Automatic annotation (TrEMBL):
<dbReference type="InterPro" id="IPR033463">
    <property type="entry name" value="sCache_3"/>
</dbReference>
<keyword id="KW-0902">Two-component regulatory system</keyword>
<dbReference type="GO" id="GO:0000155">
    <property type="term" value="F:phosphorelay sensor kinase activity"/>
</dbReference>
<keyword id="KW-0812">Transmembrane</keyword>
<feature type="transmembrane region" description="Helical">
    <location>
        <begin position="12"/>
        <end position="36"/>
    </location>
</feature>
<keyword id="KW-1003">Cell membrane</keyword>
<dbReference type="InterPro" id="IPR003594">
    <property type="entry name" value="HATPase_dom"/>
</dbReference>
<dbReference type="Pfam" id="PF02518">
    <property type="entry name" value="HATPase_c"/>
</dbReference>
<dbReference type="InterPro" id="IPR013767">
    <property type="entry name" value="PAS_fold"/>
</dbReference>
<dbReference type="InterPro" id="IPR035965">
    <property type="entry name" value="PAS-like_dom_sf"/>
</dbReference>
<dbReference type="InterPro" id="IPR036890">
    <property type="entry name" value="HATPase_C_sf"/>
</dbReference>
<dbReference type="InterPro" id="IPR000014">
    <property type="entry name" value="PAS"/>
</dbReference>
<dbReference type="InterPro" id="IPR016120">
    <property type="entry name" value="Sig_transdc_His_kin_SpoOB"/>
</dbReference>
<dbReference type="GO" id="GO:0006355">
    <property type="term" value="P:regulation of DNA-templated transcription"/>
</dbReference>
<dbReference type="InterPro" id="IPR039506">
    <property type="entry name" value="SPOB_a"/>
</dbReference>
<keyword id="KW-0597">Phosphoprotein</keyword>
<dbReference type="Pfam" id="PF00989">
    <property type="entry name" value="PAS"/>
</dbReference>
Length: 532
């Protein structure tokens, strides 16, 4: 009958642990018994040696060996038997230099040569060994017997029955097995407890199921287009999928490191670490607009998901720009309609000269406004933005002025970034003010953008908070979130190595200043390139 290996994790662990525990107990028992047997043999031989040394030191034994003959009734036999009975030895044999016994437990063997080689003891050296003699296997010792001058006149051989050593060893086995059984039982109980815990933690799944789930999880995490970041209870990253690496610009070696070590201080780190509460939290990281959600786990960690809203945000801003353009076109349509009505009235009245003067004045005014902006701002995108925003401001009943000190003749490295910064600042100003003034300056390769307004201004306590993602005093439109414009402005400035700040305007209002180092191309290099 074939025995099937169980599928569930806890059953496999239980059987494996029982097998391991049993094997370890058997191995330890064997390793314990082997040196124990040697130690008992060593003790028996040393006991035999001690008895032999004591016998050799008995007063008068040497004189009796030299003055008498071997006899079953002789004094040496009597003394040897007394010592044997007192010590429990198997035999105590006294021999002369020829190896002839003068004492033995079997008296008929007295006067016969000993059965084992006595040469070592008769040569003056002590010896211990396990050997087989006429009385069977024994632990024995031989010591030389010396006279007063130190000369060897015989030897003493003492044996301890080997069966007593074996019985001592066997006598320890039951107690040893009891301890081994207790250890095995404790190991089984501990294994059972661990297996039950594993059963609860693995929900009764088999190893194959767990492996399949892990493979599926890895495939899912690295294939989805949403960033997933898992943190442990100490704030260290323990999982990072491909999208999270891309959005946060991290490398795979960030796994295992604290969050604050791989990300710079700021709102993004605060949101990921859970120090900002809420759902669908807005944050800007590396110029990207992200939506973050954080879900705590049972072990004190958390799983954070991030969605890239950069493209959606750009589309929303393009939609805002389109709305602004429509408003500007509508305003121009109204203005042109009024002018056409005026021109029609002048023609119907027959005042042709006045009509010509009116058309000339309107055309010159429009041309002068656009030409003035183009003369001061060399980049076409920025100049077009200023002209378009002027029309939007007029439609809202506000004024957008370009400062007379504005000078930006240099080539802009990335006009889109400056359009983003300037457009956000102008839009924010037009929402709260009726007069907005724009100043653009070039300081070497550094662009300085300054937008001032006559609005309510920004309190000192809020001058840092207004650059935080998601913070706004205005209601969000349906197509996108508010609270990102100024955050994007500051992130762009920091990406260039510059800064964005707000101060008070003389006479009331606010002044937003953005410094963008290396935003302008080097003028000398540009002139050299054009000449070539």
């Amino acid at each position: 009958m074939r025995i099937h290996w169980p599928r569930r994790v806890f059953a496999q662990v239980l059987l494996t642990q029982v097998a391991i525990t049993t094997g370890v107990v058997m191995l330890v028992t064997g390793l314990f018994l082997a040196p124990l047997s040697h130690e008992l043999d060593e003790q028996a031989m040393r006991r035999a040696l001690s008895i032999a040394q004591t016998t050799a030191a008995v007063p008068g034994l040497v004189d009796q060996l030299l003055s008498t003959k071997p006899s079953p009734t002789g004094p040496i036999q009597a003394e040897a038997e007394r010592i044997r009975r007192a010590t429990g030895a198997l035999y105590v044999v006294v021999m002369d230099t020829r190896g002839v016994r003068w004492s033995h437990t079997e008296t008929d063997r007295i006067s016969e040569p000993v059965s084992t080689d006595p040469s070592t003891a008769l040569a003056g050296r002590e010896i211990m060994q396990i050997d087989i003699g006429t009385l069977g296997r024994s632990a024995r010792a031989k010591v030389p017997l010396r006279n007063r001058t130190g000369a060897v006149v015989g030897a003493v051989s003492v044996g301890i029955a080997y069966k007593s050593v074996r019985q001592g060893l066997l006598g320890t086995i039951p107690a040893l097995l009891q301890y081994a059984g207790a250890a095995l039982a404790a190991g089984v109980l501990a294994t059972l407890a661990v297996s039950r815990r594993l059963h609860r933690r693995t929900h009764g799944l088999a190893f194959a199921d767990i492996s399949a789930l892990l493979d599926e999880r890895e495939a899912m995490l690295h294939s989805i287009r949403e960033a997933v970041l898992a943190l442990d209870s100490r704030g260290r990253i323990r999982l990072l999928n491909d999208e999270a690496q891309r959005l946060l610009e991290l490398t795979p070696d960030a796994v295992g490191r604290p969050l604050g070590e791989v990300l710079p201080p700021g709102r993004t780190t605060e949101v990921l670490a859970g120090r900002v509460d809420g759902a669908d939290l807005l944050t800007v990281s590396r110029g990207r607009v992200l939506i973050a959600n954080r879900m705590p786990t049972g072990d004190g960690g958390a799983v954070v998901t991030l969605r890239d809203r950069t493209e959606l945000e750009l589309l929303g801003r393009e939609l805002d720009s389109t709305h602004g353009l429509l408003d500007a076109l509508r305003a121009q349509d109204h203005e042109h309609a009024n002018r056409l009505h005026t021109l029609l009235g002048l023609l119907e009245l027959g005042r042709h000269e006045a009509a010509v003067e009116f058309v000339t004045e309107v055309a010159d005014c429009q041309r002068a406004s656009a030409e003035q902006v183009a003369e001061r701002v060399n980049d076409p995108l920025l100049s077009a933005l200023l002209v378009g925003k002027s029309a939007v401001a007029a439609e809202r009943g506000a004024s957008l002025l370009v400062s007379p000190t504005t000078r930006l003749p240099d080539v802009v490295v990335d006009p889109r970034d400056l359009v983003t910064v300037l457009g956000n600042l102008i839009d924010n100003a037009l929402d709260v003010a009726t007069l907005v003034e724009v100043e653009l300056l070039a300081e070497g390769t550094t662009a300085v953008l300054r937008v001032s307004d006559n609005g309510p201004g920004v309190p000192v306590a809020m001058r840092e908070q207004i650059f935080t993602e998601g913070w706004s005093t205005k209601e969000s439109p349906a197509h996108r979130e508010r609270g990102l414009g100024l955050a994007l402005v500051r992130r762009l400035a920091e990406r260039y190595g510059g800064a964005a700040r707000v101060t008070a305007r003389a006479g009331g209002g606010a002044v937003f200043t953005v410094v963008l180092p290396e935003a302008l191309a080097d003028r000398q290099l540009t002139e050299v390139g054009e000449s070539q």
